């Protein structure tokens, strides 16, 4: 792969990581919401103004957690791909390329 192709792919990974960080907030919030509703409810748990039995509410919260885990896995894979791309870069980097690598490294 040429230097320009690597930089282009790295730009795509950085953009995707930015969106995944924003997307990660949704399942994180849903998991916390489900746990709080379970903790402070009795046999009937209200999730999004819908009555669930305690067992059903636990299953919904587990599904939220699985979605959260999947998004976390996608982010981890993208970080791994970005590290591999950076390892392939050789030679002198321009200022914009160095800044791109710095932006990637902030997604930890």
Automatic annotation (TrEMBL):
Species whose genome carries this gene: Levilactobacillus tangyuanensis
Domain of life (superkingdom): Bacteria
TM stretches of this protein: 30-51, 57-76
Listed name of the protein: ABC transmembrane type-1 domain-containing protein
Keyword terms: Membrane, Transmembrane, Transmembrane helix
């Amino acid at each position: 792969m040429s230097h320009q192709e690597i930089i282009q792919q790295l730009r795509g990974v950085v953009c995707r990581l930015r969106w995944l960080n924003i997307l990660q907030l949704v399942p994180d919030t849903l998991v916390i919401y489900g746990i709080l509703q379970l903790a402070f409810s009795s046999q009937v748990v209200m999730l999004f103004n819908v009555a669930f039995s305690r067992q059903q509410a636990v299953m919904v919260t587990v599904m939220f957690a699985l979605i959260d885990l999947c998004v976390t896995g996608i982010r981890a894979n993208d970080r791994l791909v970005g590290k591999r791309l950076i390892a392939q870069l050789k030679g002198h980097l321009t200022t914009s390329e160095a800044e791109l690598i710095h932006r990637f490294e902030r997604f930890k």
